[in-house]
Specification:
alpha+beta; Beta-Lactamase; 48% helix; globular
């Protein structure tokens, strides 16, 4: 009985932490420009090539519209759709897709995420912030979700 109570307390604490991390505070800004999107793409592509990872990189604007998409040679075609879904989730919900992945992994109430239209619970989608505003997002797919996120972060960092 004591162990069950401890598990419930730990689960509630984890869910509260996930919920707090999910509160979007960054306001939407003007859509990312083509030049900014090219910088993000170049940063992400450089990281992918450095590691010999074949991926798709999708850049969306702050309205969720596709600005750039690049499929590196020999990347599975399914990654085209997955990269766009990750990017859409990141811009629509104003948070990294890893937040959804962690929520689902926690189980319990976190499983509600699976019913949110447009929420992709797989790491690799990040909001793009410029001058304190959300201007778009990046989604990457093709390798492991952690590697996808590493590539996406390199792209996001190139915007700064």
């Amino acid at each position: 009985m004591k162990n069950r109570a401890l598990v419930l307390v730990l689960a509630a604490t984890l869910l509260a932490a996930v919920a707090a991390a999910q509160t979007p505070t960054t306001p939407y800004g003007a859509p990312i420009s083509l030049e900014q999107a090219k910088k993000v793409l170049a940063g992400a592509e450089a990281e992918a090539r450095k590691n010999s990872w074949n991926v798709v990189i999708a850049i969306l604007d702050s309205g969720g519209h596709l600005v750039l998409l690049q499929r590196l040679d020999n990347t599975q075609f399914a990654s085209v759709e997955v990269a766009q879904q990750k990017a859409y989730s990141a811009v629509a919900f104003r948070r990294p897709t890893k937040v959804f992945q962690d929520g689902v992994a926690a189980g319990g109430e976190g499983l509600r995420i699976l019913k949110l239209a447009g929420a992709t619970p797989v790491e690799g989608g990040l909001p793009l912030i410029f001058d304190g505003k959300l201007v778009g997002s990046i989604g990457v797919s093709g390798v492991t979700s952690q590697q996808d996120n590493q590539i996406a972060k390199a792209g996001a960092d190139a915007l700064k």
